[in-house]
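Progress note, sequence design subtask.
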C-alpha cells in the first residue's frame, strides 16, 4: 500500500517490542483479578474432604446468618448442571455425590471476600463415605465401583448424534487403538533379532502459571450475560456456558482478560459457571479469584501415566515392530480434554521414527482424584520421556552410538509416523546430524556424561477469522477472537499484516475483541495460532488490497478467514523437529547431579519474530527442566494432595538453569504465513529424556520415572533393580 517499506525478510529479521509489553512491565495491564464492577460480590466455595462420598444433607443456616451474605447455592438448587470441553461430565456444584477431595459442594456470594469465606466455613455437610478408587489398576478391575454410572447421558456434542464410542470398561474415559502394518505382531516379535520391553511412569504436574484462575460475571439490563475470564478459548467458553445455563450463545459475551501465562492450563476454567448462577440469584456481579492453595490441591493437572513399550529390531538395528500400552489417570472428570477421543492428545502420532508394524493401545481412566486436563505438550511430555529412553536402552544393548542409532531409524520423506500419518518434509535426520556436529565441537571433560533426545511436534490446525479495518487516515485495525496467552500473538499478527500490506507496522493496531465483536476463533492452543491466524490475516490483507484496487476508499472493513484442517486437500501437516544434548556431572556417593550444558537443535522456517521465537525455545527448556527435576503433584493414600504450596511443588528458578545454546536448521517452508512453522510446544518435551539418558550414562543406571531426583538416582545406584533392563 505504501512503497519504500522493508520487505518481509527485512521486517522479520528485526526484533520488536511487544505490543502489550509496556503495560505488562509498568503494571498497567488488567488481569481478571484486577477487574470489578460497581456492586460486585465475592464468591467462595465449600469443598469436599472426601475422595468419594454421597451427600446426605447440607445445612446452610450458619452461612445465611453471616453479615453480608447474599446467596448460598448447592447442587440441589441448580440441578445436575455439568460442563466440559468435549464431554460435559463435571458438575458446577456436586450433585448427589462427590468424586474427589476438593470438589465444590456449595457456593456463597457475599459483600466481601472475608464474609464469603466465613460463610463457606459455616456450612455443614453430612457425607456418607463411599469406596474410593485412587489408581487406574483398581479402577479397571472387573468388579470395581463405577464412578460415572450415568456416563451415557452426559452431553457429548462432538459426536453430533452418532452412536457413542464403545468403552472397554465403564471406568474408562476414552480409549483408542492404532494399528499399522501387520495386525498380528506376535510372529514378528518371535522371529526378530532382538526384542526390548520397558515400563515408564510419569506423575501429575501443575501448569505453573503465576496468575491464578479467576472470573467476573454479571447480567445487564437486557438480560445479556457478561463474562470476564482468563480462558484462552473464549468462544468455546461461551458455548459451554450457553449449554450449562440453557441460554442462547448470542446472550453471552465473553471477554478474555490479559492472561498471566497459560502453559496449556487455561483452556478449561471452572469459576465462570458457579459465578453465573450466583449472579443470577443475586442480580449483582460476582467474582472469584482462586488461591494458589486451591490451584494446587483442587485444580486440574497433567495426566499421571504408565507406559509399557515393546520394540523388535532386525540384525541391522532397524525397528521392525512396536507395541505400546499407555494408561492415563484422568482423575474424577474428563471435562478438561478438548479432543474427541477423550485421551490427552495424540503424543504417539509425533514419534519421529519409522516402524512398519505397530500396535498402540491408549486408555484414559476415571479415578477419585483431581481431574486431569491438558498441559503444555499434553501427551508428548510423557510419550517422549518413555520413547527416548527406550531408544537409548536399545542402542546401548546393540552397542550403537545413540545419535547414529536414531539417524538409522528416524522417519524420512515418504515414510509414516507410528499412527500412519505422513509428515510435510520431516527433518529429523537433518536435526540429528546437526546435533552430532554440535556435540563433536565440545568434548566432554572428565566426570561428565551426555544424553540426547529427539522430538517432533505437530503444528495445529483449526478454522478462524479476523476483522481488518482501514480508517480514513490510513491506519489499520485488526480485531482478533484469539487471546494472547503470553506468546506474543498480537505482535506476530502485526508483523504479518505489515508484510502483507506493505506498510509500516506502526500504522497497524491489534486488539482482541469480545465474542460479540470478533469473528469466531478456536482459541490459543496446539501451537496453531501463528499458522491459522497468520494465514487469516494474509487473507484479510489480500481482500483489503482488492477493495482498494477497485477504487474503494476508507473506511473499509473485510473479514479474513483460514481453515487449517485441510479437509482432504492433499496438504500434509507440518511437524517441527528438535533434538537435545544435555551434559551432567554426577556425584555417585549421593545421587546428586548438576546440569552443566545443553544444546538444542531445531528445524525452522522463516521466523516472524526472532525475540519471541527464542523466548519460546528457552521458556520451553526451563518448563521441561522443572518437570524433569522437581515438579510433582503428590497424592496421599486417602486421595488428598500434599503438595499444597509452591514451596512444596518446587518450580525451577534461574539458578537451576544451565547454559543453553540453540541452533537452527533451515527447513523447507511450512504451512504458516511466509512458510513459518510452530515453536510453542517443541522444546519442553525432550528435556526430561535427555537428562535421564545423561544420568544413565553417568551412573550406569536407568530412571524410569520423573522427576529425576537425587533420591531416585541414589536408590538406583545402590539397588540392582534400578539398572537398565536389556
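Output:
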Amino acid at each position: 500500500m505504501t512503497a519504500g517499506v522493508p520487505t518481509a525478510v527485512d521486517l522479520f529479521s528485526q526484533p520488536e517490542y511487544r505490543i502489550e509489553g509496556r503495560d505488562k512491565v509498568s503494571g498497567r495491564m488488567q488481569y481478571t483479578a484486577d477487574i470489578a464492577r460497581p456492586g460486585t460480590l465475592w464468591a467462595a466455595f465449600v469443598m469436599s474432604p472426601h475422595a468419594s462420598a454421597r451427600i446426605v444433607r447440607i445445612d446452610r443456616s450458619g452461612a445465611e446468618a453471616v453479615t453480608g451474605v447474599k446467596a448460598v447455592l448447592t447442587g440441589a438448587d441448580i440441578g445436575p448442571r455439568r460442563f466440559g470441553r468435549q464431554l460435559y461430565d463435571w458438575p458446577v456444584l456436586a450433585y448427589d455425590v462427590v468424586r474427589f477431595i476438593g470438589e465444590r459442594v456449595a457456593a456463597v456470594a457475599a459483600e466481601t471476600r472475608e464474609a464469603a469465606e466465613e460463610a463457606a466455613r459455616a456450612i455443614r455437610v453430612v457425607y456418607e463415605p463411599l469406596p474410593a478408587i485412587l489408581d487406574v489398576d483398581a479402577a479397571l478391575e472387573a468388579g470395581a465401583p463405577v464412578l460415572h454410572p450415568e456416563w451415557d447421558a452426559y452431553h457429548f456434542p462432538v459426536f453430533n448424534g452418532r452412536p457413542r464410542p464403545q468403552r472397554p470398561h465403564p471406568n474408562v474415559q476414552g480409549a483408542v487403538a492404532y494399528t499399522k502394518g501387520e495386525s498380528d505382531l506376535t510372529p514378528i516379535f518371535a522371529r526378530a533379532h532382538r526384542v526390548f520391553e520397558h515400563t515408564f511412569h510419569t506423575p501429575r504436574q501443575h501448569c505453573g502459571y503465576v496468575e491464578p484462575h479467576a472470573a467476573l460475571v454479571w447480567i445487564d439490563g437486557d438480560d445479556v450475560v457478561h463474562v470476564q475470564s482468563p480462558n484462552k478459548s473464549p468462544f468455546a467458553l461461551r458455548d459451554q456456558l450457553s449449554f450449562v445455563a440453557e441460554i442462547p450463545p448470542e446472550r453471552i459475551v465473553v471477554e478474555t482478560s490479559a492472561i498471566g501465562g497459560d502453559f496449556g492450563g487455561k483452556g478449561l476454567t471452572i469459576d465462570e459457571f458457579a459465578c453465573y448462577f450466583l449472579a443470577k440469584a443475586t442480580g449483582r456481579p460476582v467474582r472469584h479469584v482462586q488461591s494458589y492453595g486451591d490451584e494446587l490441591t483442587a485444580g486440574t493437572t497433567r495426566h499421571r501415566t504408565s507406559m509399557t513399550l515393546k520394540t523388535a529390531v532386525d540384525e541391522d538395528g532397524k525397528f521392525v515392530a512396536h507395541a505400546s500400552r499407555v494408561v492415563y489417570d484422568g482423575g474424577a472428570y474428563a471435562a478438561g480434554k478438548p479432543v474427541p477421543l477423550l485421551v490427552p492428545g495424540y503424543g504417539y502420532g509425533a514419534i519421529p521414527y519409522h516402524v512398519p508394524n505397530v500396535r498402540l493401545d491408549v486408555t484414559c481412566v476415571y479415578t477419585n482424584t483431581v481431574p486431569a486436563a491438558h498441559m503444555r505438550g499434553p501427551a508428548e511430555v510423557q510419550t517422549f520421556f518413555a520413547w527416548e529412553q527406550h531408544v537409548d536402552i536399545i542402542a546401548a544393548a546393540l552397542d550403537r552410538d545413540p545419535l547414529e542409532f536414531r539417524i538409522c531409524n528416524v522417519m524420512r520423506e515418504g515414510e509414516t509416523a507410528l499412527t500412519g500419518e505422513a509428515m510435510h518434509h520431516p527433518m529429523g535426520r537433518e536435526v540429528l546430524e546437526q546435533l552430532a556436529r554440535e556435540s563433536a565441537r565440545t568434548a566432554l571433560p572428565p566426570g561428565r556424561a551426555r544424553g540426547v533426545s529427539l522430538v517432533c511436534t505437530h503444528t495445529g490446525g483449526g478454522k478462524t477469522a479476523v476483522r481488518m479495518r482501514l480508517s480514513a487516515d490510513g491506519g489499520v485495525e485488526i480485531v482478533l477472537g484469539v487471546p494472547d496467552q503470553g506468546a506474543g500473538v498480537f505482535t506476530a499478527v502485526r508483523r504479518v499484516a505489515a508484510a502483507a500490506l506493505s506498510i509500516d507496522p506502526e500504522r497497524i493496531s491489534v486488539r482482541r475483541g469480545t465474542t460479540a465483536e470478533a469473528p469466531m476463533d478456536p482459541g490459543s492452543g496446539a501451537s496453531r495460532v501463528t499458522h491459522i491466524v497468520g494465514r487469516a490475516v494474509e487473507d484479510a490483507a489480500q481482500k483489503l488490497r482488492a477493495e482498494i484496487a477497485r477504487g474503494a476508499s476508507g473506511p473499509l472493513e473485510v473479514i479474513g478467514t483460514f481453515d487449517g484442517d485441510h479437509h482432504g486437500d492433499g496438504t500434509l501437516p507440518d511437524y517441527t523437529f528438535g533434538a537435545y544434548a544435555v551434559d551432567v556431572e554426577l556425584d555417585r556417593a549421593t545421587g546428586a547431579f548438576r546440569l552443566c550444558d545443553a544444546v538444542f537443535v531445531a528445524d525452522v522456517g522463516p521466523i516472524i519474530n526472532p525475540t519471541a521465537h527464542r523466548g519460546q525455545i528457552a521458556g520451553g527448556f526451563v518448563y521441561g527442566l522443572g518437570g524433569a527435576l522437581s515438579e510433582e503433584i503428590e497424592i496421599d493414600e486417602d486421595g488428598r494432595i500434599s503438595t499444597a504450596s509452591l514451596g512444596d511443588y518446587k518450580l525451577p528458578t534461574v539458578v537451576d538453569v544451565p547454559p543453553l545454546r540453540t541452533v537452527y536448521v533451515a527447513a523447507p517452508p511450512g504451512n504458516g504465513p511466509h512458510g513459518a512453522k510452530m515453536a510453542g510446544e517443541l522444546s519442553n518435551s525432550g528435556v526430561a529424556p535427555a537428562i535421564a539418558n545423561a544420568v544413565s550414562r553417568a551412573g550406569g543406571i536407568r530412571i524410569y520415572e520423573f522427576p529425576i531426583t537425587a533420591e531416585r538416582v541414589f536408590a538406583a545406584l545402590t539397588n540392582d533393580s534400578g539398572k537398565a533392563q536389556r
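Residues 721-726 have pLDDT under 50 and may be disordered. Work on this subtask will continue into the next period as scheduled.
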